[in-house]
Each structure stands twice: as structure tokens, then as C-alpha cells.
Amino acid sequence: MNGDILNDAYYHRNKTVEDALNITINVVENSNDNVKTTLQKSIMAGDGEYSAMIARGYSLCSLATGGYLTDLMSMDTLDLSHSWWDQGANRDLSFGNKLYMTTGDISTTINEDSCVILFSKSLAEKYNIPDIYSVVREGKWTLDKFGELCRIVAGDENGDGVMDENDRYGAIIWDDNMMAVINSSGLKCCEINDDGEIELSLYSERAVDAVSKYLAIAGDTNLCFPYQRYSGKGDIEKLSNDMFMGDRALFFVELLHRALSYRNMENDYGIIPFPKYDESQDAYYTNVGAYPSVFLAIPADVSDPEMIGTVLENLGYQSKEIVRDAYYTRTLVGKATRDDESAEMLDIIFSNRVYDIGWLEEVGGYNEKIMDIFRTGKSDFSSMYAKFETTAQ
Questions:
Q1: What is the pLDDT of residues 176-199, one digit of tens each?
Q2: Residue 125: Cβ within 10 Å count
Q3: Do the bridges between strand 294-297 and strand 53-56 make them parallel or antiparallel, or are there none, so unpaired?
Q4: Which of 58, 67, 86, 113 could pair covalently with 293 via S-S, beta carbons 3.0-4.6 A apart?
Q5: Exposed (0-12), middle (13-18) or buried (19+): which is 58, by Cβ within 10 Å?
Q6: Which residue, among 295, 65, 92, has the nearest Cα to 183 in the 3D structure?
Q7: Rounded CA gap, 18 and 378, in Å?
Q8: pLDDT at 19
Q9: How far apart are CA 54 and CA 132, in angstroms?
Q10: How confident is the model at residue 331 (pLDDT cuts 50, 70, 90)?
């Protein structure tokens, strides 16, 4: 216990489960870079050292296909149909009629790994931009509308004829937005077909058009600022924060965790979902960032599956009862949002999260290759896809 609302909720949850089951929960922290090697060595040694883990999806997918993880659906004491488990993750991440990793109330970070767009209210007001929340509610928040608003705001602030960090942009852009534009258009790198098999689904006319349309906006350095590509200017995280807080960009395309950095920001900001492909699309879909996202998994050599299933089920339930409110109401909505509308937008964002097994399994390396066409400015999505299709298949 340290007085922090979320920390103390986790403490209370763990203590409740420990007392109820007469166990001790021993948390072992490990860097994401070492999780895979650490677990492989433990399982090969057969020492059953770890009962469960929350680790990066990239590492867990590699461990799963290597035979190092337990099928969660085989755990008799783990009922994944309960409301404290994320049914979208269960659906999107199961293949071969098995599920090796999932998420839910047991870990709040998956919410912060959701791709969103922050917007400056003061710039929106200054440039007479209509209420953006209403645009979202009416289903008119599309890639075209995003580009339209970027063009209204972007400009050479100091009049020196060069667009740099001192000027005004439509949006500050994060590299991983390229995966987000596929998912927000209602598409995936890979789908799970009716036979439970992973099926490549990245390429379509809709995907080509969505990527082309988005790159015409995000790839235009007179409109948008690709902060991770801006070398030689010191701390790029601080630079991008200073630019957004200093009203030098209308939008910031990033993960939700970025909003937690702005609780002391003087100017007001709002939170909205990533735009739809077009107005006819049935819903807003939210990409879960492949690189930072973490999931729950169980090692293949777990010594007492019945026991650990019971522990995780209890942790999941108590997370719903104790942690959910502390996180959502008092931490996320209470600290990361500035208005009731943003809280409403979070409900939209969380209701249709996309867990793309193609990105997480790094099929064909497309998770990196699609970002490369943004990083390099070589925006030929079709040729990039064709080059790596055989490897992907």
C-alpha cells in the first residue's frame, strides 16, 4: 500500500485472493527482452518455477508456437466465458481451437495500449472546427475528415519557409499508426477462419485505398509531424509532448497511455477513436498496439494446472470487483480525461478493440514492413505486400 489508488487496488485484490485461497502470490519482475529466454530455460529444465505470466504479445506468440505455453481452454478451473475476461481477445487470439494468451480485468495496461487520437480543444476553437465529438457520434469521423481538419490547421508558424518542430501541424504521428489504419478500416493482417486456422487477409482493394488515403495525409510532412523519424533533436518523446502541449498540433495519433502524461497540461484536450475508412463502415475499430501490448499466459510445465486456474479465476473476479472501478473511474476517467465526452469516447474505443494475430505473430514481417512504407516515404503498399507474401504464407 502506498496511497496510489490503482496500486492499492491491486494490493487489496492480491491480498483478498491470498486470504481466500490460503496462498502467497510471489511476483517476479523481468524485462520484456528477457522473458522469452527466461521461460524457455525454465521449461527445458523442468523446474516448474513460474505459474503464470503477463508478458508482451510478441514474446508469448513465439513461445506458443514453440510449444512453451499451456492451452488456456484446457484448464478445467479457468472459465474464460466470465465477464472479467476479454471476449474479444478470446475470439481474436484463438487458433487451432486453442488459446495461449488472453487479457481482461486482471491487467489494465491493455486499455492504455489502445490506439487513439488526442486533439487540442484550443486549436479546434481557434480555427472554428465544428464539435469533433459530434462528428464521431454521427459516424462521420473518417480518414477524409481527418485529412480535411489537418489541412485547416497546418502552417508555417514562424514564416521561415521550412516546416520543423517550431511550426504548426495537423497531427503528430506515431510509426505504429500504419497497423492502426488497417484495423480501424475493419480489416486485419490475419483472420481466424471457420476451421480455426490463421489466414492471411491483409491485401484487398479496401486496404490499398485505406493505406493510400492515410499516407497522403500522415506521410505529408507539411501536414503531419512524424516525431519518431525526427533525428538530431534530443529527446523525441519530450519534443512531441512539448509540441502537443504547446498547441503546435491539432491531433496526436498515439496510444491512450500518452493521455496520462497530460494530466497537468494547461490547455484542454479531448480523446477520440481512430477514424473509420468511410461513413458506411458499421463501427469504429480500435487497434491494440502490437509492440507494447501484454497478455496473460501459463507455462507448459505448470505443476498444478487446477490450482493455478483457480487462482487466476479468483484474480480475474476480484479485478472486476476491486480494480476495474479504481482504474477506469478514478484513474483513467478521473486523471486522463478532461470532460464527459472523452469518457463517452473511451466507451466507443474499448467496445471494438482489435487483437490482430497477424501483427502479433509477425506473419511475413508485415508488422514492420507496413511501418517501413511510412518511415521511408515509399508508399507502394501493393508491391510491399507482394514481396513478402510467399514468406507470410
A1: 899 999 999 999 999 999 999 999
A2: 10
A3: antiparallel
A4: 113
A5: buried
A6: 92
A7: 54
A8: 98
A9: 36
A10: confident
Q: What type of residue sits at position 341?
A: E
pLDDT tens track for 9-43: 999 999 999 999 999 999 998 876 788 898 899 88
Percentage of the chain modeled with pLDDT above 90: 77
Task: Assess whether pLDDT exceeds 90 at residue 75.
Answer: yes
Task: Give the separation between CA 235 and CA 261, rounded to whole angstroms.
Answer: 15
How many residues are present in the chain? 393
- Read off the pLDDT band of 232 (50, 70, 90): low
